[in-house]
Amino acid sequence: MNILYLILLFLIGSIAGFINVNAGGGSSLTLPALIFMGLEGSLANGTNRVAIIIQNIFAVASFRKLKVHQFKKSSRLSLLTLPGAVVGALVATQISDLLFQRILGAVLIFIVISMFFSRSFGETSGRLEQSASWFIYPALVAIGFYGGFLQIGVGFLFMAALYHLLRVDLVTVNMHKVFIILIYTLPALVVFTWTGNVNWGYGLMLAAGNAFGGWWGAHAAVKGGERMIRIILAVAITIMSLKLFGLF
Fold first, then answer.
1. Over the Cα atoms of the chain, what is R_g?
2. Residue 222 pLDDT > 70, yes or no?
3. How many Å separate Cα 184 from the centre of its chain?
4. Looking at residue 130, what is its pLDDT?
5. Which of 96, 125, 137, 163 is the 20 to 30 A CA-CA neighbour of 7?
């Protein structure tokens, strides 16, 4: 196993973990890196899940240490994503087609614009939670399917759903997001492992980087607050959208 590849995976994983906790799109860095190192698309897709699980274990632990957690509520939200995630993982034999990538790029741009211009953006989480939309339930089922199938950009979708439908502040959104992704990725990884689509050597090294990035990102999210998350979110979405449109 190439030592330079392992070092590179750790560095890329650290950046991706930080981005994933604060916004999303870290897999748009890790998946191409794994493919560049010789893994086929489905194998890279499965290997990436090892890092996602470890990253979110560290992120959840960091939020808990910082006393930012609602485990009961996060667990209830996570259960909604499980059926879709399992089905998505079962049909994940290839990366999404080009047309879907273009549509996703447009959706991501819409997400960042809507978050910056939402009237309720400055309200408190307690006030917003009282008017949470029932549409959060089918939305989480659908996002769970996409996350199980591909994972790339799923953090953006969770942030949009939790922010606009659950109606909580961005720090709370990120706290719920990392817990939900941790839970639904567990059965997805079982599916990828069962079908022989995991390279554990690369996966564990990438996971070490993601873990560091996840720990770092959770601390930054709580200390930096919503303003920092908005900036990271805008940068991450812009980069990923340009990449999806073939311009980056």
1. 17
2. yes
3. 11
4. 52
5. 96
77-99: pLDDT as tens digits? 999 999 999 999 998 866 665 66
Give the DSSP H or E segment for 196.
none
pLDDT number for residue 125: 44
How far is CA 79 from each of CA 31, 137, 154, rounded to the nearest angstrom?
Answer: 26, 10, 16
> Cβ contacts of residue 241 below 8 Å, gap of 6+?
105, 106, 108, 109
Using the Cα atoms of residue 215, residue 220, residue 222 and residue 228 in order, give the sign of their dihedral: negative
Contact between 39 and 203 (Cβ < 8 Å): no
**187 pLDDT tier (thresholds 50, 70, 90):** very high
Number of H helices, E strands in the chain: 10, 0
**CB neighbour burial string for 200-227, b if at least 16 within 10 angstroms, e if fewer:** eebbebbbbbbbbbbbbbbbbbbebebe
